[in-house]
Recover the amino acids of this structure.
């Protein structure tokens, strides 16, 4: 086997010539891999597909709140909400019927109507008579009806449909209809909507998150960690693990599949993007083999930190987050890894991220890149500026 070589070049930020080249031929664009959980990256993903059709999105299947919790409890299914929303973000918007598909997949049933009314709406969708499905062309319409019919058959009379995501119900039906595996239905929908990128769960397993806090408390379940559905954590997070169930601490783990390993090892750029620090980002790095695959990849790795307040980052400076990110990656890597876990932190040139310990970052071999990334008020990343900055690194 030929030896791997690292090629160095002078970097321009943003490299508009390089970015324009990708935008002219997105079907030949680079393989940029995102370890991405929730919705924080969806807007960036919708822009990113204009520059490359080969982005890879490994999303967390460990969410345990909202309507996902009901589906997980009923069917022992990994969380499908992030898969569904990322597929929609990457869908080819020129495909016939795509606006109707997008509207259906993102629609939630009412949280105030009666169960009989909601059951009637689900029945109309299964029969192809609901206004949300009548204009969707076949074969997509027939496929959606088939998966929804499976879900309708499997849920019992006590299943709470209030606020349920139709897209999640469709994905759940596909899971139940394919030997309790998500990959086949994700692949099928990706083809039908012509997703301009690849979306997969990091791990196709029905697991949850557990954390120990600095004060000794143990908290189980993503929905109890994020500070969005419950009160924010009272103490900083000390450590996190994958857990069996939500009733008691039962640490466990699973190795990633070979296709995930290959995707990580061969990506042209690896990005650790904005999102909940533990339940979105570090959770994606927890499965066995992720860290080893990252450190087998010689190409650049970049961290784009959150803006604003993330309850999961309580007590952590940006430098400390970098340290924990690297530690999460190298925990199962042999002492002498082939390549780095992280090379760059990408920051907006005016936003105050807090004090950085540049000496410590130098010892970690992590360089800081500052470039305009924010145009919105209140301060949010501009998805096009972020896309151009990332693509300048490839």
């Amino acid at each position: 086997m030929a030896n791997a070589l690292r090629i160095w070049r002078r970097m321009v930020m943003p490299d508009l010539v390089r970015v324009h080249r990708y935008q002219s031929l997105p079907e030949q664009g680079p393989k940029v891999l995102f370890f991405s959980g929730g919705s924080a990256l969806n807007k960036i993903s919708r822009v990113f597909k204009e520059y490359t059709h080969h982005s890879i999105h490994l999303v967390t299947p460990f969410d345990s709140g909202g309507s996902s919790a009901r589906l997980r409890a009923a069917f022992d299914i990994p969380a499908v909400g992030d898969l569904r929303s990322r597929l929609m973000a990457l869908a080819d918007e020129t495909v016939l019927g795509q606006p109707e598909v997008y509207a259906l997949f993102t629609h939630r049933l009412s949280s105030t109507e009666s169960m009989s009314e909601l059951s009637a709406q689900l029945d109309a969708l299964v029969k192809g008579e609901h206004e949300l499905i009548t204009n969707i062309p076949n074969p997509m319409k027939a496929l959606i009806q088939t998966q929804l019919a499976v879900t309708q058959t499997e849920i019992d009379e006590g299943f709470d449909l209030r606020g349920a995501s139709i897209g999640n119900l469709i994905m759940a039906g596909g899971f139940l209809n394919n030997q309790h595996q998500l990959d086949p239905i994700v692949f099928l929908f990706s083809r039908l909507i012509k997703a301009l990128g690849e979306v997969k769960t990091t791990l196709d397993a029905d697991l949850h998150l557990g954390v120990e806090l600095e004060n000794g408390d143990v908290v189980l379940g993503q929905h109890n960690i994020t500070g969005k559905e419950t009160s924010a954590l009272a103490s900083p997070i000390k450590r996190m693990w994958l857990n069996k169930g939500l009733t008691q601490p039962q640490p466990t783990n699973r190795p990633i599949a070979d296709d995930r390993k290959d995707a990580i090892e061969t990506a042209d750029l690896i990005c650790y993007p904005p999102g909940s620090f533990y339940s979105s980002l570090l959770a994606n790095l927890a499965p066995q083999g992720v860290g080893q695959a990252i450190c087998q990849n010689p190409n650049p790795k970049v961290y784009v930190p959150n803006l604003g307040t993330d309850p999961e980052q309580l007590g952590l400076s940006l430098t400390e987050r970098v340290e924990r990110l690297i530690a999460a990656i190298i925990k199962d890597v042999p002492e002498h890894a082939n390549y780095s876990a992280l090379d760059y932190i990408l920051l907006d040139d005016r936003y105050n991220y807090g004090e950085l310990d540049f000496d410590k970052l130098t010892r970690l071999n992590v360089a800081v890149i500052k470039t305009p990334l924010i145009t919105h008020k209140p301060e949010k990343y501009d998805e096009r500026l972020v896309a151009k900055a990332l693509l300048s690194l490839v």
About this structure: The chain has three domains: 16-60+254-392, 66-201, 208-253. The chain has a mean pLDDT of 92.
